[in-house]
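User: Can you help me understand a structure? I only have the sequence.
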Amino acid sequence: MNTDINKKDIEWITINAHMCEVCCEPVFFADPGGIKFGGTARDGSRRYIVRGVCENCGYDSEMEIEVR
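Assistant: Let's start by predicting it. Here is the structure, written out as tokens:
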């Protein structure tokens, strides 16, 4: 596991629902093993590349999520 990944960020990403890119339902949940640290933005927020599957339509996707 990348040491730059904050444990609280992983919890936030996996617990909070995100909009699916295909069916637009708020049922996309990240796979904790599919979270990679993408860097820190100028404003200090942390960016993660997140892979997951929509529980509604089954779409497997990858998205960038910013955590402040």
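Now, to help you interpret it: The radius of gyration is 12 Å. The chain has a mean pLDDT of 82. Let me know which part you'd like to focus on.
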